[in-house]
Design brief:
The chain is mainly alpha-helical and 372 residues long. It is 44% helix and 0% strand. It is flat and about 100 Å long. The C terminus is likely disordered. InterPro entries: Alkylbase_DNA_Glycosylase/TA, DNA_glycosylase, HhH-GPD_domain. Keywords: DNA damage, DNA repair. This is HhH-GPD domain-containing protein. Pfam families: HhH-GPD.
Length: 372
């Protein structure tokens, strides 16, 4: 028979804490550390035979480390081209004479005499025309806003019709002194239509007045701008083109060096003066009249007089054609061989001018005074 399992026996361990003195604790700790430290190997005995000593030399200092040098990549440069010097660019060539300039208005005392003296010396052909006509006069002055308003009202109208509409416009505003941007903006298109101003011209007048009211344009600013900047600013106004700006600069501001290249009468005058077979184009006018600088405004004034004398029975005749014919800077193409222009461009190119600059713009103020 299997023996019955033995009952588990329990072992009771009793731990007795015996207080140790400080000296005994120190001794016990020292013994424990000595048992845990590894055993040191015995030191070999020193040899009794002397060993000859070798001469010692101080080690040489090692060189400092070299820093890596970075060489920038070489830029491939193109070889310079040798410029050929033309005879005109050589040092022996005579330098071009600078173009004279004039910034004083033509209404300045003595400025017309200076202009006529320059034109006589620069262009003997024009001198003949100057001798047969009275000198121009640029005395009247009006505010730029009033003059620009007149320019818009007189567009594409005969002189008498334009004068009639302008007089009614001034009366509607309350007099010339009341023709200011705020007054023009208060005039409605129906009111302007009753005095003969078209709807399109009404929008032009309002656009001009708004640019004044917004500070884009001002009378003081217009008077201080140079010709090129003034042309750019004024052509921003709806209804004011290059011809209107040129007329304004000559007859209102009295600028001395303005050439209205798009004016048909001035182009005809240049054709008559130089005996040209064809009417010069606007692009050719600058070079043909370059010798008039800086008094091209006065030269243009005499072109109007030349055409006026040609169409009237004044008896004035230019020298023979053979003695005054010149070559154009660019050949004028034959109209029969030129390609046909689109219809809108043809209408713009051959659009007639209904205002005589001599009688229509210079005397606007005096004619209005005579009406009243």
């Amino acid at each position: 028979m299997p023996s019955p399992p033995l009952a588990p026996t329990s072992t009771i361990t009793t731990t007795t804490h015996i207080p140790l003195s400080s000296s005994a604790a120190t001794t016990t700790t020292h013994l424990i550390k000595s048992e845990q430290s590894p055993m040191s190997s015995p030191t070999p005995p020193k040899s009794t035979n002397p060993t000859p000593s070798l001469p010692t030399t101080s080690p040489s200092p090692s060189p400092p480390p070299l820093r890596p040098t970075h060489h920038p990549p070489k830029l491939l440069s193109r070889p310079r081209k040798l410029r050929k010097l033309s005879p005109s660019s050589s040092s022996s060539a005579t330098p071009k004479r600078p173009t004279p300039t004039s910034t004083r208005p033509l209404s300045t005392p003595g400025e017309i005499d200076t202009a006529l003296s320059h034109l006589r010396h620069a262009d003997p052909l024009l001198s003949t025309v100057i001798d047969h006509h009275q000198p121009p006069s640029f005395d009247a002055f009006q505010t730029p806003f009033l003059a620009l308003t007149k320019s818009i009202l007189y567009q594409q109208l005969a002189y008498k019709a334009g004068t009639s509409i302008y007089s009614r416009f001034v009366a509607l505003c309350g007099g010339e002194s009341s023709v200011v941007p705020s007054t023009v903006l208060h005039l409605t298109p129906p009111q302007l239509r009753q005095i003969g101003v078209s709807s399109r011209k009404s929008s032009y007048l309002h656009d001009l007045a708004r640019k004044y009211q917004n500070g884009i344009l001002s009378d003081k600013g217009i008077l201080s701008l140079d010709d090129k900047s003034l042309f750019t600013m004024l052509t921003m106004v709806n209804g004011i083109g290059s011809w209107s700006v040129h007329m304004f600069m000559i007859f209102s501001l009295h600028r001395p060096d303005v050439l209205p290249v798009n004016d048909l009468q001035v182009r005809k005058g240049v054709q008559l003066l130089y005996g040209l077979d064809d009417l010069p184009r606007p692009s050719q006018m600058d070079q043909l009249c370059d010798k008039w600088r800086p008094f091209r405004s006065v030269g243009a004034w005499y072109m109007w007089r030349l055409v006026e004398a040609k169409t009237s029975s004044s008896g004035f005749a230019l020298p023979p054609v053979n003695s005054r014919v010149i070559s154009l800077p660019h050949p004028v193409p034959d109209p029969q061989t030129m390609p046909a222009l689109p219809a809108p461009q043809q209408r713009q190119q051959h659009h007639p001018q209904f205002i005589d600059p001599i009688n229509g713009i210079m005397n606007i103020g005096s004619n209005y005074a005579q009406l009243n």
